[in-house]
Amino acid sequence: MPKVADGNLGVLHMLEYASGFRALEPLESERSLAVAKRGRLPDLIGLLLADATRLLVRDGLLSDYVTREETLTTLRGRLRVDDQVRRRFLQVDRLECRFDEHETDIVENRLLAAALAIARRVCVDDGVRRSVGRYHSILSEACDASSFDLGVAEGELVYHRRNEHYRTAHELGKLFLRAFAVSDLYAPGSSGSFAFLLDMNLLFEQFVTQLLRDALAGSGVTVRAQFRDRTIILQEPLLRPYAGIVPDILLESRNATGRRRVPVDAKYKRYDEGKLDPADVYQTFFYAYAYARPLDRDRDQVRAYILYPATGGNAGTRLVVRQESGATSARIIALPVDIDAALKVVGTPAVRDLPFARALCQPG
After folding, report:
1. Stretch(es) of the chain classified as CATH 3.40.1350
2. Averaged confidence pLDDT in the chain
3. In this structure, are residues 119 and 49 in contact, taking their beta carbons and an 8 Å threshold?
4. Which pLDDT band holds residue 67 (cuts at 50, 70, 90)?
5. If we measure between CA atoms, which residue out of 178, 155, 158 comes closest to residue 166?
6. What is the CATH number of domain 201-360?
7. For the residues of 146-207, what is the DSSP string, one character each?
8. For the whole model, what pTM was predicted?
9. Hey, which of 35-39, 95-99, 135-139, 185-189 has the most confident mean pLDDT?
């Protein structure tokens, strides 16, 4: 269960906004999502997956030419000469053929079939299970997903004009394909137990990254996510890269004084209920110090930010790191992100008026 956000439906809104797919829009205008708040998140995502699959089935499942190799009694397509000579030398009643078959057993449909099979097992709401089961049966007749591998499929999948309408259903399906896990690998017996898990740390980071991109659009500030930098920690005496650092977000701007980078770390922790973790303070200070310019030190503008989820009017925390001599070395500013309030304004200019966004946009 999420610590913050408006229950399961809030988490789905966060997923939608962070990933860019829009699964809830048609559903919210057509029906009430009964499982949204009092039910389970897998049931809600299963309902969305079934509905997205329904639209694909209604419009006709995608089909394409698939190359097949079979041994036939009559020539079809092209003769595989090497295989014919090696396997059936001087035989004419059995021919090794290669031909193209126009069918629905393609990666786009296999991904959905595999995801629906998992959803059918992990969803518990009777209505959702019936809906998922119905479309799993249809997809199982259209393709064979028994040996489906998501890693291979993602390497093969390229979205274009013909299959772009599959993208939303695929994103929902990948949530099942990536998130379920055996609860006890060493348990005796043949029964299986599965847990549906979402990495809220990663989701919160992606969510605030998109919020910052929208809030800072047109301001001249570039939002860089997961920027790996191997120029900070070097090994002497040759100054070779020793280790990379990866701040969650870097805010980069340019003006007459040159380029400035301000690091931002997203922490999915309830810092509105307690003090900052010392480890997070040390990490954020290191980022602030690493990206500080001499000009920033002279102007007392060395700083870094921590963003954390909160509800209500939490004011955040400001820390100053001083040297033994008393000189200020850096400031660490922890700002709360009210997820419920943010979800109400995502995709609108009002995102710039969120308190944490206004604080980040202040001069200096």
Report:
1. 201-360
2. 83
3. yes
4. confident
5. 158
6. 3.40.1350
7. TT--HHHHHHH----TTTGGGHHHHHHHHHHHHHEEES-TT-SSS---EEE---HHHHHHHH
8. 0.65
9. 135-139
